[in-house]
Amino acid sequence: MARREPGSRAGRPAGAGALISRLGSQGAGPLSTEAAAAKAGFEGTADLAHAISASASGRELTAMGFAEDVAIATEEDSSTLVPVRDGDNAFAPG
Length: 94
Prior knowledge:
This is Probable 2-phosphosulfolactate phosphatase. The chain is mainly alpha-helical. It has a domain at about 15-75. Helix content is about 45%, strand content about 0%. It contains 5 helices and no strands. The longest helix has 11 residues, at about 35-45. The protein is globular. The protein starts with 15 loop residues before the first helix and ends in a 21-residue tail after the last helix.
């Protein structure tokens, strides 16, 4: 399996591992065990979009008609919006 280089952006879908990988490449750390595992899973998966769509959850969502949602979930840098919670822990309107 091909290993991803932290600075490489080609074909790199988003997720916790992607975020942690990017932060690590900018010097953030130290990482918790969980964060290190997410980073390793992201960087060690050659085709993360395929891995997610081929997973049990990805196949189930696709069978339910949500294939596009599965694809969108693996996109990187596709939105400039960030969800923000208000004082009641609800998402603030924006």
